[in-house]
Amino acid sequence: MSGEEEAEALAALTGRKMNDLVSEGPRQVLHPIKDESVPQGISSSASVVELQEWFKAADQAIKKAPPGPSAREMLEQGRSRLEAV
User: Fold this and answer.
1) How far lies 35's CA from each of 19, 44, 45, 72, in Å?
2) How far is CA 23 from the centre of its chain?
3) Residue 74 burial by CB count (10 A; 0-12/13-18/19+): exposed, middle or buried?
4) Quick check: 44 and 21 in contact, CB under 8 A?
5) 3-class secondary-structure state, position 52
6) What is the pTM of this model?
7) Burial class (CB in 10 A: 0-12, 13-18, 19+), 14
8) What was the pLDDT predicted at 46?
9) Which of 12, 20, 35, 45 sits at 20 to 30 Å (Cα–Cα) from 73?
């Protein structure tokens, strides 16, 4: 998984926009994410190693996925069809 994909996954996991995540990066290094900003059920003390394990599991799941368009691609196709109307 590329760094950009990891950042997108983290943004989705924490309910943040990519722009916010990128701009908050330096602050997060100095001041870790506070518990109230993390969705329930997600530990704010998750280490880099734990996140890497999640990304490895995601990569394995993607490899096992059936061929064909992804859910994101199908949504984009639907959006394109709606915009064309």
Assistant:
1) 21, 6, 9, 29
2) 16
3) exposed
4) no
5) helix
6) 0.33
7) middle
8) 54
9) 20
Compute how many other C-beta atoms are within 10 angstroms of the C-beta atom of residue 25: 10
**What are the residue ranges spanned by the domains of the chain?**
3-84
Task: For 62-82, write each residue's pLDDT tens digit.
Answer: 788 788 888 888 899 998 888
Give the CB-side neighbour count of residue 85, counting CA atoms within 13 A.
5
- What count of other Cβ atoms lies within 10 Å of the Cβ of residue 10? 15
Q: Residue 16, Cβ neighbours under 10 Å: how many? A: 15
**Distance between alpha carbon 73 and the CA centroid of its chain, in Å?**
16
Q: Which residues contact 1 (CB under 8 A, 6 or more apart)?
A: 9, 55, 58, 59
In this structure, what DSSP letter does residue 68 have?
Answer: S
Residue with tokens 């949504």: 75
